[in-house]
């Protein structure tokens, strides 16, 4: 792979990543004001950011999927269901994360955390005693956390009162949850949990593996953000 082609995913990620900060703002605006436009904008922005690396390759299939999904979002918004679409986004994000981490734990695959370590610190870092085992355990942790988060969010979506799916279907909720609490957790609290777990794990790792140097939190976040398209496919071994 040429240097120019190798840098494309990184430059694409750096260009689009700041826009991700607009998603929670638009999502909360849609939830609080109940305006369909904010909800649709949040979903469209999230879809575009997630598909940016594939769209940058200018292949017909990713662009077709992107346009078809935007059209489906527009249809849901036209029929007054943009709010429901927005409620499903956090569930979908956590299911996707659980699948990405869990899939890398299959036999013959390198755990996703091990790929990150390899990409940021070199393959030799995985040969340090305890590092490879920690990488596998941490990959399991993120798989289970994302799975649990998706389950909690699904319960909130179904059981919120008023506005939950069970209530809309005329079914009494077995675990009534305030709609305000459910929306706040779905669009703010859930992301704060993930961010807090990320930060706490960083400091725990520096203590648990204190016999070796570690990248700073800023270097870790920037490194993952600029390499994530290749990390998902396990081919970022030596391109940094």
Question: What would you note in describing this structure?
Answer:
Strand 1 (160-161), helix 8 (165-168) and strand 2 form a beta-alpha-beta unit. Residues 1-13 and 235-240 have low confidence and may be disordered. This protein has 240 residues and is mainly α. It is globular. Strands 1-2 form a two-stranded parallel sheet. It has one domain (3-231). The chain contains 10 helices and 2 strands, in the order H-H-H-H-H-H-H-E-H-E-H-H. The chain is 73% helix and 2% strand.
Structure characteristics:
single chain; 240 residues; mainly alpha; two-stranded parallel ribbon; 73% helix; globular; disordered C terminus
Topology pattern, helix = H, strand = E:
HHHHHHHEHEHH
Number of helical elements: 10
Total count of domains: 1
**Mean of residue pLDDT values:** 75
Class from secondary-structure proportions: mainly alpha
The rounded distance between the terminal residues' Cα atoms is: 13 Å
For the secondary structure, the number of strands is 2
Q: What level of helicity do the residues show?
A: over 70%
Biggest sheet record: 2 strands, parallel
Radius of gyration: 20 Å
Q: Which stretches are low in confidence, meaning pLDDT under 50 for 5 or more residues running?
A: 1-13, 235-240
Shape: globular
Spatial strand order of the main sheet: 1-2
Strand content: under 5%
Lay out the secondary structure:
Blueprint: H1 3-16, H2 22-33, H3 36-56, H4 60-78, H5 82-103, H6 112-121, H7 131-159, E1 160-161, H8 165-168, E2 177-178, H9 179-208, H10 217-231
Parallel strand pairs: 1-2
Helix pairs in contact: 1-3, 1-10, 2-3, 2-9, 3-4, 3-5, 5-7, 6-7, 6-10, 7-9
């Amino acid at each position: 792979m040429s240097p120019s082609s190798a840098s494309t995913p990184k430059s694409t990620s750096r260009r689009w990543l700041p826009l991700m900060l607009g998603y929670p703002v638009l999502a909360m605006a849609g939830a609080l004001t109940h305006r369909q436009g904010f909800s649709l904008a949040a979903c469209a922005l999230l879809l575009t950011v997630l598909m940016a690396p594939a769209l940058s390759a200018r292949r017909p299939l990713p662009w077709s999927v992107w346009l078809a999904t935007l059209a489906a979002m527009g249809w849901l918004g036209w029929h007054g269901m943009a709010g429901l679409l927005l409620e499903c986004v956090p569930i979908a994000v956590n299911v996707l994360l659980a699948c990405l981490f869990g899939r890398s734990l299959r036999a013959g695959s390198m755990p996703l955390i091990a790929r990150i370590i390899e990409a940021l610190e070199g393959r030799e870092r995985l040969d340090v005693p305890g590092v490879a085992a920690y990488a596998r355990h941490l990959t399991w942790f993120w798989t289970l956390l994302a799975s649990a988060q998706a389950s909690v969010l699904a319960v909130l979506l179904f059981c919120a009162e008023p506005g939950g799916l069970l209530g809309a279907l005329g079914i009494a909720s077995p675990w009534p949850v305030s709609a305000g609490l459910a929306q706040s957790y779905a669009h703010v609290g859930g992301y704060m949990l993930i961010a807090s777990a990320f930060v706490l794990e960083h400091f725990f790792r520096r203590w648990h593996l204190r016999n070796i140097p570690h990248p700073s939190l800023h270097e870790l976040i920037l490194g993952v953000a600029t390499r994530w398209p290749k990390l998902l496919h396990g081919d970022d071994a030596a391109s940094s």
